[in-house]
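User:
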Amino acid sequence: MRATYHHLTLSAAIPRRLEADPDALVRAVEELHEARVLWLARAEEYAARRRAEKSAGRRAVVNPRPWWLQSWWEGPNRAWYDDPSRHPALRLPAYVLRQNAILDGAELPGCHACGDDRPPVSHSTGHGWVELCRGCAWVLTPCPCGQRHRVTPDTPFDWYGIWRRAHMSDEGTPNPHWPAVQECR
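Assistant: Predicted structure:
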């Protein structure tokens, strides 16, 4: 939710003061609705297939689970919880389409989440290293110990500040003075 909110404030250019551009909320809701329609269609297909599998006596869920059923703690998008400013720059519908294509077995170039094909960034876990996508911090190579670890943000973020859109200017552009502005985007 936090990374999605941060993404929508940027993609819809929601200014710090909403009265400066009330249509920004409409743009955000339209993007969210577009992605939701795609996700719901896929979720309904999955539910129908699971009902048929259960009727046939197959109760176990096939691994890997669909992307929308993975918990944030288990998934490679754990960094988005730890640092909501590190998320794919794709529009939400494009992200959903990308995840659905991967679920269908497509071999897409670059990061599974955002498609960024730049070299990964190494991040210390204290006893090993993980490789993160340079664009969105998706875990490309997990820690050798097999455990999931917190991804500590390079720049600490303030959730209250994100919620109040302190990372945005009054005109709806990213605030250059906000500490978590990403240079790599």
